[in-house]
Amino acid sequence: MTDQAPPVAPGAYTGPSRVLSGVQPSGALHLGNYLGALVKFTRLQHEIDTFIFVADLHAITVWQDPAALAQQTREIAAAYIASGLDPDKATIFPQSAVREHAELAWIFQCVARLGWLDRMTQFKEKSGKHKERSSVGLYTYPVLQAADILVYKATHVPVGEDQKQHLELTRDIAGKFNHDFGIPGGAPVFFPQPEPLIQGPGARVMSLRDGSAKMSKSDPSDYSRINLTDTADDIAAKVRKARTDPEPLPETIEELAARAEADNLVGIFAALSGQTKAQVLAEYAGKGFGTFKPALAELAVEKLAPVGEKMRGLLGDPAVLDAILAKGAEKARETAAPTLAEVKKLVGFWGA
Ligand code: AQP
After folding, report:
1. Cβ–Cβ < 8 Å for 69, 56
2. Which of 32, 176, 280, 338 is the most exposed place for a label (fewest CB within 10 A)?
3. Domain residues for 46?
4. Which residues are known catalytic residues?
5. Among candidates 205, 219, 176, 210, which has minimal Cα distance to 304?
6. For the domain that residue 329 is a member of, what is the CATH number?
7. Is 176 in the same domain as 229?
8. Cα(244) to centroid of ligand 1, in Å?
């Protein structure tokens, strides 16, 4: 086994195209999760075999109240369905219900190199100044993420910009596994090297209070984000109070890029209306936030309020959500179990 960065894979991957992604049940979902992830899932389910999980194993890398976790898991499932995911098209399941994720993650921990994980910026951001007090799981989180993806041999992963580096690590792990355990001289390779699907103006939604920080579930200020469960009044109030500058909106993307908060609001408008930022500027250049914010609030309410309403309806009948999750887990295992069985054989485990 080598200790070096993975060499170029010896052959091509010839398996079917497949999408996998997920969201952690670590708090209320927000506009960033919606635009960076959920909207893309919904679109892709019509094009490719799609697996979307609730990342509860990832969520416990930081403390989660055991009395609340199962309900938080249902909430994410409700958000998926309310955003347009169809359980008859996409496989929707809780990560912890498919044990192959954790088992493959251990094998990948023995494939990934410490130096690769040391470079992960999200661990540095999330562990802050007290990294020695962080869970080991928070550090090895991207390895579990690689297992989540590769146990389904997923070829495409729709995510926000913040996950790009983790996807690169997944590609490195796949490449090294193929190199270390692949059939000698054999092509095609065992694992695909998945492509991130990041593009679009919603790929990095920033905090409404600070244009340099990403919108996040764990931000202590509720005014930093629009939650999918916010009422129409909450959404309008948050847009109204969003931090901006006193200048009218500029003519060009270049001028906009120098104004983080304005850039963020224009990006949100573009993503919600299915336009580019340039198209939004063509309509609002020269206009102040007194005009732009009410238009954005109206659009955000129009797009998000029905999602929140649908979520509340779904959560009113937890048995239906539980049945969807149980069925999804069973279906997910049908794909994950054979992959893990083959991996164990390739690694050389007794009885595999
Ligand atoms: N601000 C964002 N803009 C665009 N996409 C985003 N995503 C998250 N924040 C933004 C995307 O949402 C998906 C699920 O994210 P996650 O819940 O698994 O974890 P996260 O990236 O850590 O999200 P948060 O909100 O920042 O959660 P906390 O605060 O708990 O860490 C991913 O595809 C992510 O890219």
Report:
1. yes
2. 338
3. 18-204+317-347
4. 126, 214, 217
5. 205
6. 3.40.50.620
7. no
8. 23
What average pLDDT does the structure give for the chain? 93
Task: Round to whole Å and give the CA distance between 76 and 70.
Answer: 10
Q: Report the distance separating Cα 61 and Cα 65, nearest Å.
A: 12
In-domain check, residue 93? yes
Q: 164 with 48, same domain?
A: yes
Torsions phi, psi for 53 (to 5 deg): -115, 165
Same domain, 64 and 173: yes
Question: Which pair of tokens denotes residue 213?
Answer: 């920080």
Least confident of 96-105, 120-129, 343-352: 120-129
Q: Are residues 155 and 129 in the same domain?
A: yes
Q: Is the CB of 205 under 6 A from ligand 1?
A: yes
Q: Is 78's pLDDT higher than 60?
A: yes
Confidence at 7, pLDDT banded by 50, 70, 90: very low
pLDDT tens digits for 193-222?
Answer: 999 998 877 889 999 999 999 999 888 999
Query: Does pTM top 0.85 for this prediction?
Result: yes
- Is any atom of ligand 1 closer than 6 Å to the C-beta of 244? no
Ligand 1 binding pocket includes 23 (Cβ within 6 Å): yes
Q: Whose CA is nearest to atom 33 of ligand 1?
A: 159
Kindly state whether residues 159 and 271 are assigned to the same domain: no
Centroid of ligand 1 to alpha carbon of 251 (angstroms): 31
Residue 342 and residue 190 in contact, taking contact as beta carbons nearer than 8 Å:
yes
pLDDT in tens, 237-293: 999 999 999 999 999 999 999 999 999 999 999 999 999 999 999 999 999 999 999
Pocket residue to mutate for ligand 1, from 162, 208, 219, 222, most atoms within 8 A of Cβ: 162
